[in-house]
């Protein structure tokens, strides 16, 4: 599920729905929500490709009580498991590379530092705990 976050001064925050957003020097925060009961499903499809830019933040909120989730990254776009992981109260519980699940009600922020093309749902970025066959995939492109 994609959620719209309130607009903040000097930062554009938009809903992800497979759309590209053209902006100059505006960093955006995109929030993806893993709903309760999501399990091993892929986070999106090629038709709902996440299209972000270097400098944007890819935020992943975990509401799933039925399975573990975290962001697997090759390290090009952001550290494995994101730059920061927060608990349900917003307290930072991990900073830097991480292999533990996002706490239920918590989230991670992946601050995108380099372009990647994971438009095939491949191994640049996926759900660390759920990637098997066609499950746990993340279709995402990060451009400059």
Secondary structure: elements and pairs:
Layout: E1 2-3, E2 29-34, E3 50-53, E4 57-62, E5 71-73, E6 84-86, E7 92-95, E8 107-111, E9 116-118, E10 125-127, E11 140-143
Parallel strand pairs: 2-4, 3-11
Antiparallel strand pairs: 1-2, 4-8, 5-10, 6-7, 6-8, 9-11
Count all strands and give the number. 11
Strand order of the largest sheet: 1-2-4-8-6-7
How is the biggest beta sheet arranged? 6 strands, mixed
Low-confidence stretches: 2-23
Q: What distance lies between the first and last C-alpha atoms, to the nearest angstrom?
A: 25 Å
Structural class: mainly beta
Question: In percent, how much strand structure appears in the residues?
Answer: 25-35%
Helix content: under 10%
Characterize the overall form.
globular
pLDDT averaged residue by residue:
87
Question: What is the count of DSSP helices, taking H or I runs of 4+ residues?
Answer: 0
Give helix and strand order, one letter per element, not per position: EEEEEEEEEEE
Radius of gyration of CA atoms, rounded to a whole number? 14 Å
What would your notes on this structure say?
- By secondary structure, this protein is mainly β.
- The chain has strands at residues 2-3, 29-34, 50-53, 57-62, 71-73, 84-86, 92-95, 107-111, 116-118, 125-127, 140-143.
- A hairpin with a 5-residue loop joins strand 6 (84-86) and strand 7 (92-95).
- Mean pLDDT is 87; it is low at 2-23.
Give a quick rundown of the structure.
The protein has no helices and 11 strands. It is mainly β.
